[in-house]
Amino acid sequence: MQAEVVADRLVYIFRFIYCGLYLSVWKERIGGVVPVAATMRGAEHVTLQAVRARAHPNVALVKYWGKRDLHLNLPAVGSISLTLGGLYTEVTIQPSKANRDEYRSNGRLVEGAPLSGLGRFLDLFRALSGRQERLSIEAKSNFPVAAGLASSASTYAALTVALAALYGIRLSKEQLSALARQGSGSACRSIWGGFVEWRRGERPDGSDSFASRLVSPPDWPITVIVAITDFQPKHTVSRDGMRQSETSPFYPAWVASQVDDLDEARRAIGAGDLERLGSVAERNCLKMHAVAFTARPPLVYWRPATLAAVETVWKLRAAGVPAYFTIDAGPQVKVLCRTQDRATVQGALAATPGVRKVILCHPGGDAQLVEGFH
Ligand code: PMV
User: For atom 5 of ligand 1, which residue has the closest CA?
Assistant: First the structure.
C-alpha cells in the first residue's frame, strides 16, 4: 500500500474516533436523551424572537434528597410530586443587548452563583442549536422565591420550554424534562401537571432519569394549602443541603427505604386514596428532615411556626378532617386535604401562631408557552 493511502486512512480513523468521543461527551452533557438530529435545523441565521413560557412549582410528596451525580444532577432516589396550580413563574427570553447573559428575577438583577448556574444551563441549548447569542432572561413569580416553595422548579421548567421554542428545537416532554433536570432537579417534574414521578434511573449518562405523569389533574378533588411561616430566602440551598445530609448516619437508610415509599405513593395515587398518600407523604417528609437534622453540621429548615402548623394538621386529623403535611427545604408547611375541607383547613392554618400567610392551590397543569406573546 502506498504511504499516501495509509496516511489518508489514518486521518480518517482519527477523525472517526474524535467524532465519536465528541458526540458521547456532548450526549452526556445534555443528559443523553436529545437526538443528534435536534441540532440539525439549519436555523442558525434566523433572527431570534422573544418568547415567554409559564410553569407551576410542585410539591414533593416523596422527596428528592441526595444526588448520585452532581454534574448531571442525577438523584440518589426517585420522587413523586403534585404540580401546584395558582402559583406560577413566567419566563421571558430575548437576545441580550449587552454582550453577556442577563438575568432578572422579579425585577431584581441576579449575579454571582445563580447567574453562572443559569449560564451553564443556557450553554446546553446553545450547544443544541449551534447559536451563540447571549440572552436576556426575565423571571416573574407570583409567590415568594427561594423560600422552600420550589421557585427554582417553576423557573427552570418555564426556561426549558421557552428556550426550546426560542431556538425552534422540537423535543418530547421527556426530553424537556431531562434538560430541565439539569437546571434544577425538581424542575424536571414541573414540565408535567398533576401527579408526576421522576425516576432515579440507573444509567451513568442520566438518559433514564426524567419525569413522567402519573395522573392528570382533574381526576381527584384534592387541594394543597401552603402555610408561609417566613418570607426570607432559605439559609442553605437544596444543593448544599443534600451534600451536607450525606454526613448523617441515617442517610443510607433514607436512600434504602425510598423504594417502598414510592411504591406506596404510586398505589395510593392509583386508588385515589388520600389517607394512604398523606400518610406516606408525612413519613417521607419527616425522614428527609431527620436526615437533615442529624447531618454534620446539623441542618434545620424549620421555624417554631413550622412545628406549630404541623400540630395544627395533627389536631385537624384528630378532629376527623383528613389533612396531611409535607415540608420541603424551607420553613413552609404544605397541607394536602380534600377540596371539600379546604375552608376548615385554611382557617385552622391561618389561626396558627406564627403563620404569616396561607395560599390555596389546586392541582396545576403542564409547563407551556404563553400564547399570543411576541
Ligand atoms: O430541585 P432542587 O435542587 O431545588 O431540590 C428540591 C429538594 C426538595 O424540594 C426538598 C425535594 C423535592 O423533591 O422537591
Answer: 238
Q: Which domains does the chain have, with CATH numbers?
A: 51-369 (3.30.230.10)
Q: Is the CB of 101 under 6 A from ligand 1?
A: no
Q: Is the CB of 154 under 6 A from ligand 1?
A: no
What residues contact residue 109 under an 8 Å CB cut-off, 6+ apart? Answer: 102, 103
CA of 275 to the centre of ligand 1 (A): 23
CB-ligand 1 contact for 64 (6 Å cutoff): yes
Residue type, 162: A
Query: What is the reported pTM?
Result: 0.88
Nearest atom in ligand 1 to the alpha carbon of residue 64 is 13
**Full pLDDT tens readout for the chain, 374 residues:** 455 544 444 433 433 333 333 334 444 444 444 433 344 344 556 788 899 999 999 999 999 999 999 999 999 999 999 999 999 999 999 999 998 999 999 999 999 988 999 999 999 999 999 999 999 999 999 987 766 677 899 999 999 999 999 999 999 999 999 999 999 999 999 999 999 999 999 999 999 999 999 976 556 899 999 999 998 877 898 999 999 999 999 999 999 999 999 999 999 999 999 999 999 999 999 999 999 999 999 999 999 999 999 999 999 999 999 999 999 999 999 999 999 999 999 999 999 999 999 999 999 999 999 976 75
Beta strands in 171-266 (DSSP E): 195-198, 211-215, 222-228
The protein residue with its alpha carbon nearest to ligand 1, atom 9, reads: 328
CA 58 to each of CA 152, 153, 308, 326, 334: distance values in angstroms, whole numbers, following the listed order: 10, 7, 23, 12, 11
Grid cell listed for 295: 447531618
How far, in Å, is the centroid of ligand 1 from the Cα of 34? 24
